[in-house]
Amino acid sequence: MRIANMSLLAALILFAPGCLIVDHEEPGCYGDGCTTTIGNFGFWWSFELQDGSLSDSCAVADVARIDVRVYDDWGDLEYVVLDRPCNDLGLDLLDFYTGYYDLQLTGRCPLGRITHEGWYEVYVGPGPNELGVLSLDYLGPCL
């Protein structure tokens, strides 16, 4: 009786539908995610002033807080951080799949009004990616 049950179990295992995808380039990786690599990107910000010059000083630009939004290739919001202190001067974003993203930065004055904004198309490759200094355009005074 036990031998019959073992034979039935072995037959079910051998003829069960489904498959296992094994990536031979990345041992220990199973499934479609094996070809997906992860990247990070970092940047600093600066601000266009009313006279058209640039400054990396939050105080000179009258910017107190920064909002950061990252949209994927389809326009879906992938990452958001609101109300980040401007004096951090920059940001490192971690664990993004490689590919293209749209990055939106907005600067808010101490009264909460948006005075600066910038949109950037970003390609995130595997590993660290440094974007350098991203300048936000001047939109108007805090008033």
By helix and strand content, what is the structural category? Answer: mainly beta
- Structurally, the number of domains stands at 1
Please provide the count of β strands.
8
Per CATH, which architecture? Sandwich
Measured by DSSP, the beta-strand proportion falls in: over 45%
* H/I helix tally: 2
Share of helix among residues?
A: 10-25%
Distance between the termini: 87 Å
In N-to-C order, the SSE pattern is HEEHEEEEEE
Characterize the largest beta sheet: strand count, sense, and whether it forms a barrel.
8 strands, mixed
The oligomeric state of the chains shown is single chain
- Give me the Rg, rounded: 25 Å
CATH topology: Immunoglobulin-like
The CATH class is Mainly Beta
| Cα shape | elongated
Low-confidence stretches: 16-25
What's the pLDDT, averaged over the residues?
A: 84
Describe this structure in a few short sentences.
This protein is mostly beta strands and 143 residues long. The protein contains 2 helices and 8 strands, in the order H-E-E-H-E-E-E-E-E-E. Strands 1, 2, 3, 4, 5, 6, 7 and 8 form an 8-stranded mixed beta sheet that branches.
Would you spell out the secondary-structure blueprint of this structure?
Layout: H1 2-15, E1 38-48, E2 54-55, H2 58-61, E3 65-71, E4 77-85, E5 90-97, E6 99-108, E7 114-124, E8 127-138
Parallel strand pairs: 1-8
Antiparallel strand pairs: 1-2, 1-5, 3-4, 3-6, 6-7, 7-8
